[in-house]
Structures are given as structure tokens and as C-alpha cells.
Amino acid sequence: MVSADSKAGVPRHVAIVMDGNGRWAKKRFLPRFFGHKQGVDALVRVVQACIDREIEYLTVFAFSSENWKRPSDEVSGLMGLVLAAVSRYLARMGAMGVRIRIVGDREAVSDKLRAAWAEAETSTAHNSKLTLNVAFNYGGRWDIVQACRRAIEDGVPAAELTEAKLSEYMAMNYAPDPDLFIRTGGELRISNFMLWQTAYTEFVFSDCLWPEFGEAQLDEAIAAFRARDRRFGGVNAPGVPQEA
Ligand code: IPE
Ligand code: IPE
Ligand code: MG
Q1: Is 191's C-beta closer than 6 angstroms to any atom of ligand 2?
Q2: CATH number for domain 13-227, candidates 1.10.10.10, 3.40.1180.10, 3.30.70.20, 2.60.120.200
Q3: Which of 46, 48, 116, 189 places its Cα 20 to 30 Å from the Cα of 98?
Q4: What pLDDT score does 1 carry?
Q5: Residue 70 labeled ligand binder
Q6: What pTM, to 2 d.p., does this model score?
Q7: Ligand 1 center to residue 21 CA distance, Å?
Q8: So which residues are the catalytic ones?
Q9: Is 133 annotated as a binding residue?
Q10: Residues with a beta carbon under 5 angstroms from ion ligand 3
Q11: What is the mean pLDDT of residues 192-199?
């Protein structure tokens, strides 16, 4: 699904790879965990900034399907941090009008975390200011495979498995494709984030480490997005008629 930009060049859907927490901590001679902790605060800040800018969807990469490769103390630290963040910020997110959705494979996470996710989703389901998709134990390849599997289970005939049909089975089928992708931390890669949905997304890479990301950096990314000429394979030139 290609999303039409909403009001005056504001992206409807922003997707962020929140990278650089570890390096932020390292620079301060702190354990990596402290970087992740600061990262949660950055996320709360950015959620508010998105609401203020009337962005409708924000998808953040919080834990990838490959992040299990990290040392077990970092993984368990992250799981604990997520639980703590839900109990600390859920009410506030609800009051801000945020609808929370978790995307990713929930099988591998603990019962406690699964229950916290369910609570976060049900208690904010009625909100409509901003949809916050938290990609957790998520991988773009996982998403495509789970979509294919479910389509097969539903008995969709091969001839009917179009791009539009498969999109219906993707984890974020309720959201338009992201208009703007931001990766902090300076790496120039997608790291298995939203592979299917970013076909025509505009990419902005920032050297800013995620814990330091805020309104100013978001505005910089939006300004870069606004300066792009989105053609979706067509031709944007005066006098050239556009096909639907
Ligand atoms: C991103 O920060 C957070 C997660 C992957 C959970 P990193 O932990 O990858 O930070 P760097 O890239 O090592 O600095
Ligand atoms: C991507 O960052 C995943 C998240 C931000 C959750 P990584 O730090 O895991 O990515 P690589 O290993 O540098 O590609
Ligand atoms: Mg990283």
C-alpha cells in the first residue's frame, strides 16, 4: 500500500531503527544497559514529538530477530527494561492518545512479557491520535514468511496471491507503508527491518545516537523527507499526466 503524504509534507508513517544505545553508553564508560535505559526516554520524547506533528503511525525497531545473538545478560536486561517501561509509561501513553501495537514473533518471549504486551494493546486499543508499532522479536523476513504461511493456511490459491493479497497478511496490515525511514547510530543498513513495506519509503540516516535523538533531529529528518521527489516509478514533471 503506497501512502499518500498527509498534510503539507508531513509523513503519515515514520519508521525508526533506534540504533546506537550501546555506543552512547560506551562513550560514557557505562554498561550498555544504561544506553538502552536512556533509549526508552528518547522513545517517549519522540512519541510526543510525532503527536505534535500529527504523524499518524510510528513504528520503532526495539528488538530484532537477530538480537538474540547478544550476550544473555544484555538480552535479559532488555527484557526486564521493556517490562519496566510498560509499567512506568503505559498510563502516560494512554493519556497521550497512543494506540500501542506489538509486531513480531511473540512465541519466544516470556509469559510475563506476552501478558504485558497484551495489556498494552488492549488498554490503548480505543486511542487514535498515534499508532505506535513496537517491533519486538521482529524481522522483515519473518514478517514475509509468516504472511505466506497464513495465506497458505487460509487456502489462498496461488493465482490469487497478489501483492495486495499478501499485504493483507503482513503484520502491519492496518497501517500504510512508511513514508519516512530513519536510522540513528550512523550505520547505513536496514538490518532486517520492514523489508516488504519499505519498497518506496524515503531513507534518512543520522549519526545521532538514539538516546540523544529528539525533536530537532526528527525535524531534520522530516525536512530531508520534504525535499525528496517521490516518483513511485513515475515521472514528476509539470505537464506530465500521472496515471493512477
Ligand atoms: C539499539 O542499540 C538497541 C537494540 C538493538 C536493542 P544497540 O544496542 O544496537 O547500540 P549499538 O549499535 O551497539 O551502539
Ligand atoms: C537493529 O540494530 C535492531 C534494532 C535497533 C532493534 P542492530 O544494532 O541490531 O543492527 P546491526 O547488528 O548493527 O546490523
Ligand atoms: Mg546497534
Answers
A1: yes
A2: 3.40.1180.10
A3: 189
A4: 46
A5: yes
A6: 0.95
A7: 5
A8: 19, 67
A9: no
A10: 19
A11: 98
**Proportion of the chain above pLDDT 70, given as a percent:** 94
Report in angstroms the alpha-carbon separations of 152 from 105, 139, 146, 147, 148.
18, 20, 10, 9, 6
Mean pLDDT score across all residues of the chain: 95
Answer whether 181 contacts ligand 2 (Cβ < 6 A).
no
Is the shortest distance between the CB of 185 and ligand 1 below 6 Å?
A: yes
Amino acid letter at 80? G
> How far is 209 from 10, CA to CA, in rounded Å?
23
